[in-house]
Amino acid sequence: xxxxxxxxxxxxxSAVIYQIYxxxxxxxxxxxxxxxxxxxxxxxxxxxxxxxAIWLSxxxxxxxxxxxxxxxxxxxxxxxxxxxxxxxxxVSEAHKRKIRIILDLVLNHTxxxxxxxxxxxxxxxxxxxxxxxxxxxxxxRKPNNWKSLYGGSGxxxxxxxxxxxxxxxxxxxxxxxWRNPELRSYFFxxxxxxxxxxxxxxxxxxxxxxxxxxxxxxxxxxxLAQLLGKENYVTRNQxxxxxxxxxxxxxxxxYKGIMLVGxxxxxxPGNHRLVASYLTNTxxxxxxxxxxxxxxxxxxxxxxxxxxxxxxxSIPVEAWPCNVLxxxxxxxxxxxxxxxxxxxxxxxxxxxxxxxxxxxPFIYYGEEIAMRNAWIPKRKIKDPLGKRFWPIYQGRDxxxxxxxxxxxxxxxxxxxxxxxPVYSDNTERNVLNQMNYNNSILLFYHKLLALRKSSLxxxxxxxxxxxxxxxxxLAYYRYTLEEKIxxxxxxxxxxxxxxxxxxxxxxxxxxxxxRADEQIKATFIVLxxxxxxxxxxxxxx
Length: 541
Ligand code: GLC
Ligand code: MG
Description:
- The protein is α/β, with parallel strands linked by helices.
- It folds into three domains: 11-108 and 181-451, Glycosidases (TIM Barrel, Alpha-Beta Barrel), CATH 3.20.20; 115-166, Oligo-1,6-glucosidase, domain 2; 461-537, Sandwich (Immunoglobulin-like).
- The chain has helices spanning 11-14, 36-41, 43-49, 84-96, 115-120, 181-196, 223-227, 239-253, 272-276, 293-296, 301-314, 343-356, 384-389, 431-435, 441-454, 456-460, and strands at 17-20, 53-56, 60-61, 73-77, 100-105, 134-135, 155-158, 163-166, 201-204, 259-262, 288-289, 322-324, 360-364, 462-469, 473-479, 484-490, 496-511, 519-527, 532-537.
- The strands form four sheets. An eight-stranded parallel sheet has the order 11-10-9-5-2-1-13-12. The protein has a six-stranded antiparallel sheet with strand order 14-15-16-19-17-18.
- Strand 10 (259-262), helix 9 and strand 11 form a beta-alpha-beta unit.
- Helix 12 runs parallel beside helix 15 (441-454).
- The longest helix is centred in the middle third of the chain and has 16 residues, at 181-196.
- The model is unreliable at 1-5 (pLDDT under 50).
- It binds alpha-D-glucopyranose (GLC) and magnesium ion.
- Alpha-D-glucopyranose binds next to loops.
């Protein structure tokens, strides 16, 4: 019998990874805030769905200015999520079900409330001074033109010592100085602390912004040039960052089967080569790196095809791609457009794409029930970005609303008042209802995950674009020496006629409109609106 491919050290290549936003997944104690015990209660659901690992957005102690991406103690769990015992239970219950646990590690900055920063700001000769980035400014001016990615200058003046500190994100998130060796080794010990508790990897937050230009030169080019496609090589993607990643990898490699996935922030999104430069087959950098270009793509088969082609081409030999449709920083993939009526069909097209591409798929919680991008009234907005930029930009709460489980109060998320409102656009759209509805998006996900797991060709096969009918139809092959699978996705809300070069001879594996196991032999196919069909091609052996 074939050994289970998800069990080896390369488990992450064949895994499907599910991102949980812990505050919004499941609340076990009725305080309106999701927690670790709540996640434990839903592990059987995740097993049923077929995921192999979960990535938890940050669960560490934090004042929650940026929902945990502002850590004030890397070795403690935030009390609203639970405690260390709860965490150990989560790891053990997940492992019993062969589900791995990935933690989110924020290395670029701490919370302003972290005791290190509190010390660092006291005086210029404080031992923690060098753990952050402090600079003098010329009279009445900031040290240089570096911007915060969240708006305004990246420099904030601190009265106590009359210097500025640098922050890539909010001023409540001062950047750490990764050139300090003591700080590095402290973080290596943080990693070992969690690895010793049995976790299976880390998602490395904003990892490519870790190191900044040592000479503090002004950022070139201008913000406009960056928006037009030029990367900022002064505060991001410094050569030393790659060096540090090697060291993080060394720590991970002290343990078996640990996976590191990096968030690589590029401007504009989809700088494939840059993302891929963090993956490599010659030295040990990251196992996986996010490329967000699918998220930003227009709804067009041609556009998707070109993005995927470029992404696949940029992956170094022996390195491995991963794919993602949405996350806690961006809009949900469904419902941020105006074509609402057809959205469930579109969700199936996207699901088929995500789960039949080459590379590790990441599913964002709720995507499997096509949870919509929510609209939140201004007074209920929690994300400081939303508060700052309303109404031009509503912030990130739209993709962070509570998971929808069943028809009870707050759709089963919590018996108390949820921290963000449940977005109930349609009463059908929860897990329980969709489990009992034949054509539901949830059951479609469930089947696709099972199919993927059972097919070495879908797990490991190469990817090759095949036929494209303008902006409407995307088709591609996955193939190994033994097998060939054709995936056809109709992006349009109309029937489409497809002419094939050679006669197609195969059998349906899964389809939104055709019966599984149905034989298909044709040179001409009429596709239904938004049809997704996966066909195993008959090979002459
Ligand atoms: C990453 C996170 C985002 C956070 C930022 C600062 O981009 O995904 O949520 O605000 O880093 O930590
Ligand atoms: Mg709770």
